[in-house]
Design a protein that fits this description.
single chain; about 450 residues; mainly alpha; Growth Hormone, Chain: A; globular
Length: about 450
């Protein structure tokens, strides 16, 4: 009985820790998410102020962020193994503050440098986050914990989008005064999230195999198992030999393309559609609010139904929302909207209501895909089997997601919308196929022994 009470107490404590990580990320990404939505528009107005000598693209800035994140993901597992996950998350979060401060008085080289630094920090932050939440979980509540985190985390889209909407209402151009206000508030909020991460305690539970009870196991000191960068990279490549991991990474490619589309391209398209009149810029923020609504609904579906609904059913629903959002965008938004201001319309009359429905669908499918892929990685590579393998698996997840996001941001500045949506739909089909394969392979075993020659 005493052991049972102790187990329940640890479960409650670790649930609180998951919520704590969620609230810290809520603060950080309320700021960064809103900044990402407005980046291209802010820099476009800055170019008008400073003249043709100021050649900085918001798309390129975000592409550098994700490219740097992809490269640094090979090193981030080593950093997380040497440093406790909460300290690694703190170090990563500080780079977001640095990035935001670069926009107070935009200078080309500083913005691109800050973008690269942020990419490195993001790799550390997200790798550590995956390890931390997995260490707070058991096999039976892993889906729930990632769902809880995602619900709290994705409220950031609501807060950031709401701020952009109210500040940019009836604003035709973003002046330097508006820029100072935007990034001053963003920086302050992001700093609060950094401090919150630093205050988090360590989890007291590692994920257990379902053949065992949900009894708690003391979290091992990662410093004892810290390995070299060379060994980490070797282990990451070793994981890539697994058909299961390759299938997961195929699904991950779509999450990267979707991330670039909803966080950078879609809002920019709405802001450049002259048919929406003087409120067009404010719809950048409003679409972010509805993306947040979709993210929260998706997280709630995972948290509440994660143990009742099979992951394959949840992912199929996410796939359908992705296809529906792509088709609706194709019909409503003119092809040139990602590249320049346009007075053209799509195949159907543009509607603010339809635009917000599309935003909701984009947020919903992003939430469902990310939570299910994260939970599947945590199930196949649990911390009690090999904590470094867990970190390497999440690093691979973020590596591929970041690479595809970087590529998507680069081509977003040159490709017309219909070509971007074609790529979007192709990878959605490939992604759902990869996830279904990996989920089916994982049902026969909850963990993979990565020390074998060919895992899985």
């Amino acid at each position: 009985m005493r052991q049972l009470c102790s187990n329940l107490s640890s479960c409650r404590r670790n649930k609180v820790l998951v919520c704590g990580v969620g609230f810290a990320f809520l603060a950080i990404f309320s700021a960064f998410g809103a900044a990402s939505q407005a980046t291209e528009s802010v820099l476009e107005e800055t170019r008008k102020e400073k003249g043709s000598s100021f050649m900085v693209s918001g798309y390129v800035s975000l592409a550098i962020v994700y490219a740097a994140c992809a490269i640094f993901n090979w090193i981030s597992p080593t950093i997380v193994s040497f440093v406790k996950p909460k300290y690694a998350m703190f170090v990563g979060s500080v780079t977001y503050v640095f990035f935001l401060t670069a926009f107070f008085e935009p200078i080309a080289w500083l913005i691109y440098f800050a973008s690269a630094v942020l990419g490195c920090g993001a790799a550390i932050l997200w790798t550590a986050q995956g390890v931390y939440i997995t260490a707070c979980s058991t096999a039976t509540n892993l889906n729930r914990n990632f769902g809880i985190f995602w619900i709290i985390f994705t409220i950031s889209n609501l807060l950031g989008g709401a701020f952009n909407y109210f500040l940019l209402s009836n604003v035709i151009s973003i002046t330097s005064h508006s820029r100072y206000l935007l990034y001053g508030v963003f920086t302050a909020i992001c700093t609060v999230g950094c401090v919150f991460l630093l205050m988090l305690p360590l989890p007291k539970m590692e994920m257990q195999d379902t053949s065992e009870s949900d009894s708690t196991v003391p979290l091992q000191n990662n410093q004892d198992s810290a390995i070299s960068v060379r060994s980490t990279i070797a282990k990451s490549f070793h994981l890539c030999l697994s058909p299961c991991m390759l299938a997961i990474l195929l699904a991950t490619c779509f999450t990267g393309i979707n991330l670039a589309f909803y966080s950078g391209v879609y809002g920019t398209c709405l802001g450049r559609m002259q048919v929406f009149g003087e409120k067009a810029k404010s719809y950048i923020g409003l679409s972010g609010i509805f993306v947040g609504v979709g993210e929260i609904v998706g997280g709630q579906l995972t948290a509440v139904g994660g143990n009742r609904i099979r992951p394959t059913f949840i992912m199929m629903f996410g796939f359908l929302t992705a296809i529906l959002s792509a088709i609706s965008t194709f019909l409503m938004v003119p092809p040139e909207a990602p590249i320049k201001e346009t007075s053209a319309t799509g195949f159907i009359e543009p509607s603010v209501y339809l635009a917000m429905v599309i935003g909701t669908l984009l947020g919903l499918n992003d939430s469902l895909w990310n939570t299910q892929i994260s939970a599947l990685i945590g199930k196949i590579y649990p911390t009690n089997a090999d904590s470094v393998a867990t970190a390497a698996a999440f690093a691979l997840f973020k590596f591929i997601q970041s690479v595809t996001s970087a590529i998507a941001f680069f081509y977003s500045s040159v490709l017309l919308l219909h070509w971007q949506l074609l790529i979007f739909m192709i990878f959605a089909i490939l992604g759902i196929s990869g996830f279904l394969y990996a989920d089916r392979r994982s049902t026969s075993s909850l963990s993979v022994n990565i020390t074998t020659t060919i895992p899985m």
